[in-house]
């Protein structure tokens, strides 16, 4: 499509001697939540890391807003407007919640302040524990902080890696609600193994298996395809 | 009692010098994961440049500033030429920085001559104050004051400035700092330069106390700096201060009572820490190797 926000073409990624991603093709349309699904070790996290430049693509291209960002260093990619919430949340444990947010702010202008206010209304716990070290937050609060930090900049795309991992169901519900609200303001690529979360949030899906894209389509289609879910996601 | 106080003051003054050389090293190791054995040579270069500039200008302050500038320049060159090609490889770092330390020591002899250099104190820092039976040597009090001011300055920068927050965040997780849009390379270079400048300042402050500078002095102080970093906890500035004071005080007291055992006690202190608290006295939490 013409207005594709992010496009991966024939991406191959190696980590040391291991060939992780094999000719991945992947597109993200603005305003949508695109979900990357697949079993452990399928290459979902490596796909996000390759987009961010944290793992280098051996060949293939990553285009963001029409620009080839394949060989750019991670900080340039972030400055182009991509926010990243890693699987381990990437919280700076000795820094307070406020300091974690400040490190993440590329600018300290009115627009950033406005986004900060919005995201703190979304996650009131962060305001409550503003001066508490990030390492002392609960798992859910760390996840909220990581998502909030990625949102505070004027990003066009958020890459969120397994936000439900290790969280209690009630906290997962909160995270889903917050991403639903963010979805109205930005585009999201979500890596998720929790199919409930993926189907609640996703507009489109890609399924990876052994580093290969094996299926993609509208989330509606996946919700109804029991055979596909059983085969690649292990959902009976 | 006055003996104990005098030994304590001497120990604290030496501790502050160890702190100056170690605080840069701890940030360099914590942030950049670089084992820089040439760091001690910057201490010697600071000493020589400080003496030379003091001799030429007759201003002790200019001598200190010249040492800081020399540290900044040598730090920049070291990072760009020696360290940059060996990021991520500790074995290569050890070999190349050990070699570079020897090169820097030999270069001192080439530039300033092979003989030891005599150093003097400025008149206004000569002499001592007497408080009853306790005599405080002015210059040692000056070293303690400078060390404290630098510690407070570093802590304020780390706590309240954006650059300081980035450095602290970088010690914990470099990869995430980059993913937030920050050029970690520039931060690396900046920290390396500042760390080198502090080591050079330490050297320039040390020689008026010892009276002489020699090219190999950096090796000795470099070893102490590594011990301080290990005891204090890699990446922790307050840890460096506490460890430096411990090492300074133990060196001062042991040096007086059992001078042959001075270094041994410091080593034993390090071994105890390595066995029972390998992360050091002050651990930086949530450190990622990425």
Please give the largest β-sheet of chain A: 6 strands, mixed
Strand order of the largest sheet of chain A: 6-7-8-3-9-10
Number of domains as seen in the coordinates of chain B: 1
| CATH topology-level fold name of chain B | ABC transporter involved in vitamin B12 uptake, BtuC
The proportion of strand residues of chain A reads 25-35%
CATH topology of the domain at 6-90 and 157-233 in chain A: Rossmann fold
Unreliable parts of chain A: none
What percent of residues of chain A adopt helix (DSSP H or I)? 25-40%
Keywords (chain B): Amino-acid transport, Cell membrane, Membrane, Transmembrane, Transmembrane helix, Transport
GO molecular function (chain B): transmembrane transporter activity
Subcellular location (chain B): Cell membrane
Main location (chain B): membrane
Description:
Chain A: It comes from Aquisalibacillus elongatus. Chain A: GO terms for molecular function: ATP binding; ATP hydrolysis activity; branched-chain amino acid transmembrane transporter activity. Chain A: Belongs to the ABC transporter superfamily. Chain A: Residues 6-235 form the ABC transporter domain. The complex is a heterodimer of chains A (236) and B (290). Chain A has a domain at 6-90 and 157-233: P-loop containing nucleotide triphosphate hydrolases (Rossmann fold), CATH 3.40.50.300. The two termini of chain A are 34 Å apart. In chain A, helix 3 (97-104) packs parallel to helix 6 and helix 6 (139-151) packs parallel to helix 7. Chain A has 236 residues and is an alpha/beta fold. The relative contact order of chain A is 0.18. Chain A has helices at residues 44-52, 74-79, 97-104, 110-122, 124-128, 139-151, 169-183, 195-201, 219-224, 226-233; strands spanning 6-15, 18-28, 33-37, 57-64, 67-68, 82-85, 157-161, 187-191, 204-209, 212-218. In chain A, the strands form 2 sheets. In chain A, strands 6-7-8-3-9-10 form a 6-stranded mixed beta sheet, with helices on both faces. Chain A has a 4-stranded antiparallel beta sheet with strand order 2-1-4-5. Chain B is mainly α. Chain B has 11 helices and 4 strands. Chain B has helices at residues 2-32, 39-57, 60-83, 90-112, 138-160, 162-172, 174-179, 184-210, 217-232, 237-257, 262-276; strands spanning 117-118, 128-131, 134-137, 212-213. In chain B, strands 1-4 form a two-stranded antiparallel ribbon. In chain B, helix 10 packs antiparallel against helix 11. The A-B interface holds A 52, 54, 73-75, 78-79, 84, 86, 88, 90-95, 99-100, 102-104, 106, 133-135, 149, 153 and B 162, 165-166, 168-169, 172-173, 175-184, 284-286, 288.
């Amino acid at each position: 499509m013409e207005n594709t926000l992010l496009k991966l073409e024939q991406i191959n990624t190696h980590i040391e001697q291991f060939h992780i991603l094999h000719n991945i093709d992947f597109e993200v349309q603005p305003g949508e939540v695109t979900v990357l699904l697949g079993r452990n070790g399928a290459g979902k996290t490596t796909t996000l890391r390759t987009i961010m430049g944290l793992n280098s693509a051996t060949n293939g291209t990553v285009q963001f807003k029409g620009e080839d960002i394949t060989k750019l260093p991670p900080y340039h990619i972030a400055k182009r407007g991509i926010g990243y919430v890693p699987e381990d949340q990437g919280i700076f444990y000795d820094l307070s919640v406020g300091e974690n947010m400040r490190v993440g702010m590329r600018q300290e202008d009115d627009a950033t302040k406005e986004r900060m206010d919005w995201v703190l209304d979304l996650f009131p716990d962060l305001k409550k524990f503003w001066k508490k070290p990030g390492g002392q937050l609960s798992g859910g609060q760390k996840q909220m902080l990581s998502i909030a930090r990625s949102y505070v900049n004027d990003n066009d795309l958020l890459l969120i890696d397994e936000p439900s991992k290790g969280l209690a169901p009630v906290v997962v519900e909160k995270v889903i609600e917050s991403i639903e609200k963010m979805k109205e303001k930005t585009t999201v690529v979500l890596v998720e193994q929790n199919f409930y979360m993926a189907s609640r949030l996703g507009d489109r899906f890609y399924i990876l298996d052994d580093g290969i894209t094996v299926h993609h389509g509208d989330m509606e289609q996946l919700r109804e395809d029991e055979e596909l879910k059983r085969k690649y996601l292990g959902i009976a | 009692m006055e003996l104990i106080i005098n030994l304590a003051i001497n120990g604290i003054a030496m501790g502050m010098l160890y702190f100056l050389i170690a605080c840069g090293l701890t940030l360099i190791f914590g942030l950049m994961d670089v084992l820089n054995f040439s760091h001690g040579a910057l201490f010697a270069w600071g000493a020589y440049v400080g003496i030379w500039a003091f001799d030429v200008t007759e201003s002790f302050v200019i001598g200190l500033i010249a040492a800081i500038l020399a540290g900044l320049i040598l730090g920049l060159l070291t990072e760009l030429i020696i360290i940059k090609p060996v990021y991520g490889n500790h074995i290569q770092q050890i070999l190349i920085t050990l070699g570079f330390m020897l090169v820097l020591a030999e270069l001192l002899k080439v530039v300033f001559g092979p003989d030891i250099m005599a150093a003097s104190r400025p008149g206004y820092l000569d002499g001592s104050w007497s408080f009853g039976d306790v005599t405080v040597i002015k210059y040692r009090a000056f070293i303690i004051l400078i060390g404290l001011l630098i510690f407070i300055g570093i802590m304020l920068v780390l706590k309240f400035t954006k650059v300081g927050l980035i450095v602290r965040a970088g010690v914990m997780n470099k990869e995430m700092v980059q993913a937030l849009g920050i050029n970690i390379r520039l931060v690396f270079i900046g920290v390396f330069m500042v760390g080198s400048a502090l080591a050079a300042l330490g050297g320039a402050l040390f020689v008026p106390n010892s009276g002489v500078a020699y090219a190999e002095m950096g090796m000795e102080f470099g070893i102490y700096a590594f011990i301080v970093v290990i005891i204090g906890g890699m990446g922790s500035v307050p840890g460096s201060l506490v460890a430096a004071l411990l090492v300074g005080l133990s060196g001062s007291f042991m040096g007086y009572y059992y001078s042959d055992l001075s270094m041994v006690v410091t080593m034993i202190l390090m071994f105890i820490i390595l066995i029972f608290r390998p992360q050091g006295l002050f651990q930086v939490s949530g450190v990622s190797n990425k």
